[in-house]
Amino acid sequence: MKSQQSEILIRTLTVICLALGGPGAVLGKLNGDFNGEGYRIPSNPDALEFPQAHGSHPDFRLEWWYLTGHLYTETERRFAFQATFFRYADPPEERRNLISNRDFGAGLIHLAHMAILDTESGEHAHRERINREGWDAVAKEGGLDIRNGNWSLRMTDETRETLELRGTAGAGNEFTLELEPEKPRVFFGEHGLSLKGEEPTSRSYYISFPRLRAEGSLSWQGERHGVSGRAWMDHEISSGQLTDEQIGWDWAGIQLDDGREIMTFQLRRKDGAIDPFSYLGWVDRNGELRHYGAGEFHWELGEEWESPETGARYPLGIVVVAPDPELDGAETRLTLKPLVKEQEFVGRGGLAYWEGACDVLDRDGEKVGTAFVEMTGYAGSLQGRL
Q: Which residues, in sequence order, are CB contacts of 122 under 8 Å at separation 6+?
């Protein structure tokens, strides 16, 4: 049993390392649409058929379904949530051997993270789960239906692409949400591929619902509330993204009150430089996407907050400076102000990242939207933890 637990822990760290940008995430050499280990490489987004493509793709090494949102009760009490489901596959040859020998799990590992923020008390509750395929966890192919224990995400109407999300974050803290897209899904990245580096393996399919209407219930410390609000969902499919020179990333999903969204990330290098594969995408009110490269926008990092748990120093209060398509490309400045500073997620083995709900302020300090920010690689090298 101890050896099995150790194996699962190592795989957990590997999944987090790959997903959050640890060094060594790029795999093998490209061979057609496959890398040297036999994993498929994202190459042709037109080959993805929906709604089937919302499901699992175990011929790719790693994928995740990421959801965040801001929720309000009838009395305007404010909560925020994070829910991320990861699916990791062993190399295809190893998986074939496991399946032929009918070994448990068939080489698929499922990791999930859940968090709830109560802005009234400032408490940030978060939990992590890791299970083998079939061991209280599954991500189905051909349609969206994911479960890890009693945490789940499924598509309830394939025509409207509506979703049901269920999660918990400790005793008495749970939510059930119905999510409905308010605009069409988008593929971030030019030509449908999100590029993270020069290597042909450093890419992903990045499918997003940048604006979802959220309705449902949330229980906090045993007290149940009806809630409504706005959510964001990403689904990334890859077999390796960041390079050995990239130590982490800063990411933001921004939802403006005027009906537009921004997804942006900057990739940080070991030498302190910002990688040229950093990206910003504007989504207009109709769901049309406009792309900007690293030289066309920048982040101004704010005052550092030091985590009392890990000692990591996260530069919070970020300002995103970018051209605004509705202002003929004139510069806009958006400050992402954390609702609470203490929103660090610490998983098994001490691997940590900051995943926080923010308000969006314009240059005059007026609130113009909401956001979630993710900052990785500040708690030390993820690969070193292995």
A: 340, 342
Count structural domains, the chain.
Answer: 1
How many CB atoms within 10 Å of residue 54?
24
CB within 8 A of 298, min separation 6: which ones?
266, 274, 321, 322
Query: Tens digits of per-residue pLDDT, 321-349?
Result: 999 999 998 999 999 999 999 999 998 76
Tokens of 88: 């990791």
Give the CATH number of the domain where residue 309 resides.
2.40.370.10
Range of the domain at 73: 2-385
- Which residues have C-beta within 8 Å of that of residue 382, sequence separation ≥ 6? 13, 16, 17, 20, 21, 22, 23, 248, 351, 376
Output the DSSP codes for 115-179: EEEETTTTEEEEEEEEEETTSSEEE-SSS-EEEETTEEEEEEETTTTEEEEEEESSTT-EEEEEE
Look up residue 354 and give its DSSP letter.
E
Query: What is the tens place of the pLDDT at every residue in 232-257?
Result: 999 999 987 667 788 889 999 999 99
- Whole-model pTM? 0.90
